Amino acid sequence: MRSRIGKSSTGPGPTRLPGSFSLVLPAHNEEENIEIVVADALRTLPDFAEPFEIVVVDDGSRDRTGEIIDRLAREDARVVPVHHDVNRGYGGALRTGFATATGDHVMFMDADRQFDIADIALLTPFVHEFDVVAGFRRERNDPLIRRVNAEIFNVTVRALFGIHLRDIDCAFKIFRGDLLREITLAAPGALINTEMQAKLRRRGATVQQVAVNHYPRVAGTATGGNPIVILRAMRETVYLFVEMHRHPATAGEHRRHPVRIAWDSASAVGGLGVKVVNHLARRGNPRH
Questions:
Q1: What is the DSSP letter of 256?
Q2: Residue 222 contacts by C-beta under 8 Å, 6 or more apart in sequence?
Q3: Can you give the pTM of this predicted structure?
Q4: Rounded to an integer, what distance in angstroms lies between the CA atom of residue 194 and that of residue 169?
Q5: How confident is the model at residue 269 (pLDDT cuts 50, 70, 90)?
Q6: In the prediction, which pLDDT does 279 show?
Q7: Side-chain half-sphere of 128: how many Cα atoms within 13 Å?
Q8: What are the residues whose beta carbons fall under 8 Å from the beta carbon of 74, sequence distance 6 or more?
């Protein structure tokens, strides 16, 4: 997977997407957010794609999320509600959304209002040239512990799978629909981002990275910092590593020697330690 980091220039108007477009929104207990997110998407997407659909996956919510998206679907046929009777996890919600989506291009975005669908304008200029346009959070607005966990995870993914994305778990990406539908995904949790990139990399997919905005969560409850979720992600990472190395490498892909993996991991963790120390130092310095 060739990767570049770019800055978009939308010119005098928005860059429209070719063909049809699907936006997938996984939602778990997002009754305070989901109507706002869908309304913003309905207002914004006509400038970028026609036709389009908004696939909202209610992942076993215990609040009014399911009720709200059913009402939104009755009010606008472009909203496609899908319901899980029980919570299947982030990966399960995305897999259902991707299986439902019919667009020539498929995007997913979290439904917690930490991203703004208007930032699609930053990604669309690159869709004509790249198979995947991946956002990375310019400044991540999460608690420090979540940012540290994310850095550790990015280091691990880089070392084990050779994926060099700045922000592997950023939930703001656009994919070629046919390419996304060619791969089989299994990860039940957040590791689905890594699984997608690892399997698309094997297919030689090209990727462009673009900085996007990230906002503090103002409603609802985040679960990414839950220790159980973190442990589950670690277990899924091991399973995916074994799966990816159980199959023969494809043309242009080389298996990485365990010593090289260990060296890369140690080097990256050392760099992470410096980042954390510097961050804490800045927080303690009133001049910053």
A1: P
A2: 112, 142, 146
A3: 0.75
A4: 8
A5: very low
A6: 47
A7: 6
A8: none
- pLDDT higher than threshold 80 for residue 104: yes
Helix axes 192-202, 89-100, angle to 10 degrees: 50
Reference 188, options 237, 132, 151; nearest CA is 237
How far is C-alpha 172 from the chain's CA centre?
Answer: 5
CA 65 – CA 136 distance, rounded (Å): 27
Q: What are the structural domain ranges in the chain?
A: 2-143+165-225
Yes or no: say if 169 and 93 are a contact pair by the CB < 8 Å rule: no
Please list the residues that pair with 172 across neighbouring strands.
109
Q: How far is CA 137 from CA 63, 114, 118, 134, in A?
A: 29, 10, 15, 10
Taking only the tens place, the pLDDT of each residue in 137-196 is 987 655 566 666 666 666 776 667 777 788 888 999 999 999 999 999 988 887 899 899
The count of other CB atoms within 10 Å of the CB of residue 237 is: 20
Question: What type of residue is 274?
Answer: V
Query: Domain 2-143+165-225 is classified in which CATH homologous superfamily?
Result: Spore Coat Polysaccharide Biosynthesis Protein SpsA; Chain A (3.90.550.10)
165: phi then psi, degrees, rounded to nearest 5: -100, 140
β-strand partners of 192: none
**CB atoms near residue 286 (< 10 Å):** 5
What is the 3-class SS of 34-97, one letter each residue?
Answer: HHHHHHHHHHHHHHCCCCEEEEEEEECCCCCHHHHHHHHHHHCCCEEEEEECCCCHHHHHHHHH
- CB-based contact 97:57 (threshold 8 Å): yes
